[in-house]
Structures are given as structure tokens and as C-alpha cells.
Structure to design on (231 residues):
């Protein structure tokens, strides 16, 4: 089984709708991240969480919110989706022990019409 | 702030050709450097990393050397295969300073698409 899972894998929604992307991990890591990937722009950090009570904004947090329900779960919400939020979204985890390697989920492809 | 610049793609090669993908960075402190690979339809996975100057990371025939004097971490492979076709990302870790304490965040380059033909 995959260590980092994301649901759904694909989603089509309409402008103005609220949607939630979910991430779960079995790696036992404290740190979790949400990124979006756009062609030619690499990965940009939306939010990150170093433990259940520590949530921080990344470089592009406007229009997004997150919830860390447990060590293993980190959800990303789009309160009112807009077309320029069409992108590939990745969740990642890392360990607090000083190894900065991040482990990625398979991604959620989101299309906002 | 920190930044990573990768060579423009896409890169198209024939099988068994030599590969170089350039990566340069701007950072304060002493970051760790990474190469991640993204195969079609998948998430990113770590290819190799180096944690201090002059370290060489290697994996699956790929190599990269941490060059602090030129702020570079170029990815190389002597003989590429069709299965190496993917998007490659260079990244660096945010660090607090000379002590090397990490903030725990990565900054990514824009990615380089590699296509290898038989």
C-alpha cells in the first residue's frame, strides 16, 4: 500500500463550489505539506504543518484553507473554487529528525470550470 | 529569498546519450540539495540528494555534485534509457543558518521535461 494517499485522484467542479482534497499517510511523519503544480512553474507551497497544532501559510495560500485532523491526515479546502485554481495538487510528508526529504502522494488533478 | 533555476526544457535525447540538466541556486545558509523525478501520472520521488559542499549524490546511474563555489547542482547520467523519460526537479531546503537547522521546507525549480527516444 502507498505510504501517502490522496483522494480524490481527479475532480471536476464548477466555479464557486467548495471542495476538499484529502491526504493520509502511514509513514508516521509529523510534517505535512500541500503544493500545487502548474506547467512551467514547478511546485509552489500552499500550506504546511509541522504537527497537529502547528499550521503555516506557504507562498500561495490565498483562496485555500487547511485542516490537520490528526497526525496522519491533512486536508486542503477551496472555499469557493475559481478557474485559476485548476492545477495538479500534491500532498507530501517529512520527518522531524532533520532529514529534509519529502515523500509525495500521487496527486489530485483538479479542473474548475 | 531562496530560489532555484533549472535549464529550460524540454530536453530530447536518443537512448544511450549523455544527459546534463543544469541547476543553480540562491540561498542563505547551508541548504541541502535534491533532485526529484516525476514519472508520467505519478507524484514526485526523491532521485538523489547532497547535504554539504562537495558531496556527490547518486542513484540509478544519475549523479550530482554540490558545488558551493558555483552554487550549482547539475544532474548527469552517462547513458540514458527510454525509461528515464520524466520531469526532473531540482530543489533546496530552507535552513536557519550556519548551524544548518532546517525550517523543513523545500524550494523547487520549475522542472525540466526529459524525453528519451529509442
Amino acid at each position: 500500500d502507498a505510504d501517502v494517499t490522496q483522494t480524490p485522484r481527479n475532480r471536476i467542479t464548477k466555479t464557486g463550489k467548495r471542495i476538499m482534497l484529502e491526504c493520509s499517510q502511514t509513514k508516521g511523519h509529523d510534517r505535512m505539506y500541500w503544493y500545487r503544480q502548474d506547467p512551467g512553474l514547478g511546485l509552489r507551497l500552499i500550506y504546511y504543518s509541522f504537527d497537529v497544532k502547528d499550521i503555516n501559510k506557504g507562498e500561495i495560500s490565498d483562496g485555500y484553507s487547511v485542516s490537520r485532523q490528526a497526525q496522519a491526515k491533512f486536508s486542503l479546502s477551496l472555499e469557493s473554487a475559481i478557474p485559476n485554481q485548476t492545477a495538479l495538487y500534491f500532498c507530501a510528508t517529512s520527518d522531524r529528525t532533520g532529514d529534509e526529504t519529502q515523500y509525495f502522494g500521487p496527486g489530485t488533478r483538479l479542473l474548475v470550470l | 529569498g531562496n530560489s532555484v533555476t533549472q535549464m529550460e526544457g524540454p530536453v530530447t535525447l536518443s537512448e544511450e546519450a549523455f544527459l546534463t540538466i543544469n541547476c543553480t541556486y540562491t540561498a542563505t545558509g547551508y541548504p541541502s540539495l535534491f533532485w526529484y523525478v516525476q514519472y508520467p501520472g505519478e507524484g514526485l520521488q526523491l532521485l538523489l540528494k547532497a547535504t554539504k559542499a562537495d558531496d556527490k549524490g547518486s542513484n540509478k546511474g544519475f549523479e550530482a555534485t554540490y558545488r558551493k563555489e558555483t552554487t550549482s547542482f547539475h544532474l548527469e547520467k552517462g547513458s540514458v534509457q527510454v525509461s528515464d523519460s520524466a520531469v526532473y526537479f531540482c530543489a533546496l531546503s530552507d535552513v536557519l543558518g550556519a548551524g544548518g537547522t532546517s525550517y523543513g521546507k523545500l524550494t523547487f525549480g520549475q522542472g525540466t521535461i526529459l524525453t528519451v527516444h529509442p
User: Anything to note?
Assistant: The mean pLDDT of chain A is 93. The radius of gyration of chain A is 13 Å. Chain A touches chain B through 25 residues (CB under 8 Å).
